[in-house]
Write a structure and sequence with these properties.
9 helices, five-stranded mixed β-sheet, six-stranded mixed β-sheet, Purple Acid Phosphatase, chain A, domain 2, binds manganese (II) ion, 2 domains, globular, alpha+beta
Amino acid sequence: MSAHPPYRLTRIVRRTFRPGQRVLMISDIHGHDGVFRALLRQADYRPDDALVVVGDLLEKGEESLKVIRTMMRLQESYDVTALLGNMDVYTIHRILSDDPAWYNQLFDQAPRMIRWWGGCLLKEMCDELGLTLTEDTDRLAVLRAVREAFAPELGYMAGLPAILDTPTVTFVHGGVPHLRLSELEGTLSAPYLKNDNFLAQGLSFDKYVAVGHWPTVLYRQRLMDMSPIILRDRHIICLDGGCGVKRSGQLNCVILPDARSEDFRCLWADGLPHVIAAQAQAEGPEPVYIHFHDRQVTVLERGPLFSRVLYHGRETRVPTAALDDETPGQLNTDMTDYRLPVAPGDRLSLIRTCGDELYVRKNNILGWYKGEVTDAAETAE
Ligand SMILES: [Mn+2]
């Protein structure tokens, strides 16, 4: 039995933010460097702000390598702490491990990741080295080349801690069972990084615990709201806006004017095309939200664009393209039929069109809009 590599063990960094220092929290960038940098610009991020990136910098996007390099560059002149997420640990372990059971996953899963997310870290690295991944790629030779060429980037990732602890906020990608952190120190970090459905565990803390990992929309009951969840009574902040996990996701930033403040401000950015609504639309009736983890429906009538379905006894409609043909009655995504309240001039992130209707996000909330739009780029400023 070999010892675990250090990046799989819980390393804790402890620090105090300066009085009056702004604290910016972002999680789950997932290979979306352009969105990340747009969000920092929007936050007016300055060298004396404290930025904490709460894990999952990598994969589910096309720009993982760029994200690593952006972080490395920021670190030179900004106050920034990045933490490991479960996806980061899996990814670097697959690259750095000599165990074929691990590195084979990297190669076996690459085609699916490229199809689904548009790329993966291995492909980005191979592209830069002019290597092509094929069926008969010499995997060990590729690994050796990648480890050598990207030693700084891999070293940066492998050196990140799992937890940042401060007097007022503890940051960790998935969640911790309690704040007796010295008991967790040096143990395998997987339970604190891949800690699914953290809010459902009923925990509360005496200072804030800021986590990512589990998209906040999964906790919502009525509306598909991607904004951060801030529970002041339980002292939990959930940051993950679902960036990269799906097209409708957004990257969230929670900002504190000072670490002792509870005056939270939330910003988001996404990589979607933006349009401006030209017409008003009244809010629709009580919406049906088909949850990702409970997305079985009964199809009542299949139409070319929309299908009528029954979900937990309620009739609703879904885009026919959202019906998964391989698993009858199952959607391939979560979905809402919510008709958003829209005023002329509202800015909408366009997720998809279905006939003359637009599936959009307006201020964190997903829903439908039927009306004229103009391109946001033409009307900006
Ligand atoms: Mn994660």
